[in-house]
Amino acid sequence: YKGVCIMRKFEKSSKLDNVCYDIRGPVMDEANRMVAEGVNVLKLNIGNPAPHGLMAPDEVVRDMAYNLRDTEGYSDSKGLFSARKAIMQYCQLKNIPNVGIDDIYTGNGVSELITMSMQGLLDSGDEILVPMPDYPLWTASVNLAGGTAVHYLCDEQSNWYPDIEDIKKKITSRTKGIVVINPNNPTGALYPKEVLEQIVQVARENELILFADEIYDRLVMDDKEHVALASLAPDLFTISFNGLSKSHRVAGYRVGWMCLCGNKSNVKGYIEGLNLLSSMRLCSNVPAQSIVQTCLGGYQSADELLLPGGRIYDQREYIYKALCDIPGISVVKPEAAFYIFPKLDKEKFNITNDEQFALDLLRDKHILVTCGTGFNWKDPDHFRIVYLPNMEILKEATAKLADFLSYYHQ
Ligand code: PLP
Asked: Which residues are near ligand 1 (CB < 6 Å)?
């Protein structure tokens, strides 16, 4: 209006001061800008199967379409009975103890439930042990909820397994829980039972809640078996997280769940908080809940991708070998999921800023990766590749990467 000078400025909330999610951060913004200008960017950055031709099984899509009319309304805030029943049976198959229908909450992806589980628990100064490297939503959610994420080391020298001594060192009187991401994003590691048992023992001795993010539990290779963390801890309280985004390639449908497992005798207040938060968001996407039963029952559609001759397996073999052949890169072979987390020789390339490394690679070779510090890794010497893109793209990307590293110096 005439004569009125608008001076008021709106800043982001200070709650967001320590919150980062760099998988979709500045490097991806730059890639999007380049794509808008017509550049063909090789995207090795997001764990989203469908755009790479890894499509959901037809039966799943048909069931969702079939159920659309019946799923127009809100569901119970925790989810449809049929979905939760199937999840309950899945828990039984995985020896996850003491999960009844009311212990299961469906969510708009595991993402929503990760933030909910932290919002419902943490007060200022409370600490949660989070792996380093981590899937960064965990660190972000702890910080957003007012807590402090304390990072424990996953050790590259030991196949990226959690370093139990480091976990012990980082426990304080404010530690409320420990997050275990297994199989792991970004390393692709699968933890053996003995390592999980040691984590459980530390939680037992220090009265910690276990948060088990197991969204990749059906994406395991080399005849290995995934052991559910909660199955080793019937005397403790575990929240176990899982979903369909990856195993059934329906990341866009947004469907995941969390299960309250094991001993609930001392978490009544926390559960009340979770129920309140679950009610406040009314319910998760109901059409997507309607496919849980189909997806978890019977034939597991990811299996053939993970065996020799299957795309994920073959692409893992290829990317591992191609990276090993590049001077200045070393890498641990992943056993699950579809990520690999190579190490750069810091001295050789003189890298002091890995975001800059990712930007330089993007601008120079049009390859988009995510830098290691985006996963809260401590040093600027790693990056993550998602090896879902098809073999031709992986071949082109690794050849360009090898060429880039033959002259790169920061
Ligand atoms: N947890 C881990 C370890 C992930 O890698 C992801 C997605 O990449 C998620 C949770 C979130 O998955 P969604 O929200 O699609 O269920």
From this structure: 47, 109-111, 135, 181, 185, 213, 215, 243, 245, 251, 256
